[in-house]
Amino acid sequence: MKISYNWLKQFLQIDWDAQKTGELLTDLGLEVEGISQFESVKGGLKGIVVGHVLTCENHPNADRLKLTTVDVGQETPLQIVCGAPNVAAGQKVPVATIGTTLYTKEGEAWVIKKGKIRGEASQGMICAEDEIGVGESHAGIMVLNEELVPGTACSQVFEIENDEVFEIGLTPNRADAMSHFGVARDLKAGLEQKEIQKELVTPSTSNFSIDNRSLKVDVEVLESDLAPRYCGVTISNLVVQDSPDWLKNRLRAIGLAPINNIVDTSRIGSAVACF
Question: What is the CATH number of the domain that holds 215?
Fold first, then answer.
C-alpha cells in the first residue's frame, strides 16, 4: 500500500523527515518496506526560471531562427537562439539556464549547454510546455503571465509537487489502516507514546450544504446488524472534466492514473478514509 507523506501531513502536522516517520510506523506494526521520491514534474523544474524577452531579431545566418536577448534576473541579459515561430519581444517565458537537466517524454535526461547555433552564441533555451513537462503542446514556446518577475523559479509558478511515498506491507488484520486517515490515526497514537501531542485534523465540511431534499434514493439494508448505518447523497448538474492538478498529483503519487473529476473523486475518497 502506498501512502503519500504530503497527504499524511494534511491530517497530522508533523515535521519529522520521512525516514524517522517510517521507523515509527514500522514500530507500530505498519511495516514500511521502502520510501520513494515522487515528482509531479520530473526534475522539479530545477534551473528553469522566468525570462523577459527584451529583443527578438532575425538570425543573421538562418531564416527560421530568431536571435533574442532575455532578462533572467541576472546582471547581464542572456543571448538565446530560438526557433519557435511565436517568440516575440516583451514576452515572459520559461528559460532553461545553462546546466539545467531536461527530460524527454521517455524520461531520458539531457543537459542545456552553452553553445553556438549557426555562428551565434546561445546561453540557454526558451522552452515549450512539453519540454519542461507541464503540458503536451509543442506548437511554440510557452508564454507566461506578463506580471511575473524575471528570475522567478518556475517551480513557484506552476503547481508542481515533490513528495515522499511510503510503501507499507499491510497485513490482513489491519484493515483500519487501509487509508491515509487510518495511518495518520495510528501515527498520532505512536507520537502520544513518545509524549508528543498532535491534533488529528479532519477535512472541513463547512462548505457542504444540502439545497434540495427532493431527489431521494430508496435504500434497503438487508443486514442491519452488519450495516447499522448507511448514508448517501445525490449530486446534480455535474460536468465531467479533467481533475485539478492537486488531485492528479495526489493520485499519481500513490500510483494511480487520473481519469476525470468524477472517477478521481471516488478514488481519492477511498484513499483518504477507509473504515
Answer: 3.30.56.10
Which of 4-18, 23-37, 170-184 comes out lowest in average pLDDT? Answer: 170-184
pTM listed for this prediction: 0.73
- Name which of 47, 50, 70 is nearest 122 in CA terms: 70
User: Contact, 92 vs 115, CB < 8 A?
Assistant: no
Q: Are residues 36 and 56 in the same domain?
A: no
What is the separation, in whole angstroms, between the first and last Cα of the chain? 15
Task: Quote the pLDDT of residue 274.
Answer: 53
Beta carbons within 8 Å of 122's beta carbon, 6+ residues apart: 79, 80, 81, 114, 115, 116
Q: Partners of 116 in the beta sheet?
A: 121
Whether 268 and 165 share a structural domain: yes
Look up cell 448505518; give the residue. Answer: 229
| Structural domain for 65, as ranges | 48-157
- Is pLDDT of 102 > 80? yes
Q: For position 91, which CATH number holds?
A: 2.40.50.140
The residue count for the chain = 275
Cell numbers for 135: 503540458
Cell 443486514 locates to: 223
Quickly tell me which residue has 503542446 as its cell.
137
- β-strands 31-39, 78-82 pairing: unpaired
